[in-house]
Design brief:
Layout lengths: L1 H14 L12 H9 L15 H27 L3 H27 L10 H10 L4 H30 L3 H25 L9
Length: 199
Amino acid sequence: MLAAAWLVIGSAVAQDKPAASGPGHTTAEQHNQLRANRGSPTAEQGKSRIDNGDSTLMRRMAESHLGEIQLAALAEEISTDPKIRTYAQTLLDDHYAALGELRKMAGDKGVVVPGGPDTDQAAAVAKLARLTGDEFNRQFVTSAGIEAHDQAVKLYDEAARRAKDEDLQAYAGKTGQVVAKHLQMAQQLQGTPPQASAQ
């Protein structure tokens, strides 16, 4: 199970697409657009054209998105609770879309964003990958749903207040509303008894 979970996470992040597919999921066209907007460095992007503080905020946002994507991909592989899986797919769709927009903005402004989560998020992924069943579900909601999104809400609030770049301010305000909704959804899940999927 652990090896399969890591394979799913690596595949999802490396290919910039979630592990699951189907109605209501991120489309192939969105995946292609995301790959086109990765914000990888070019000769023109050799020097950042925005404030250093704004560049740092953009990099932290990218790490936050990538951490949530890895955690959500893990939930779709391990959890059998339909509510957890639905929540995980919502995270994948929303964070992939927001990450694609961020990468496009970063590329336009000469900022190279990270390609993976920070060390704390990576540790959370590694810890969750070793769990199964109800214990996984509880820890996923706590770690990915509540703790990570509580930090993300604070990050986007900080960016909306302190960013000097108008585009970044607007992005932070819009995306902050999305992550706040994710936090509320997780808080609701935390009070919901786990459900096993129908066999």
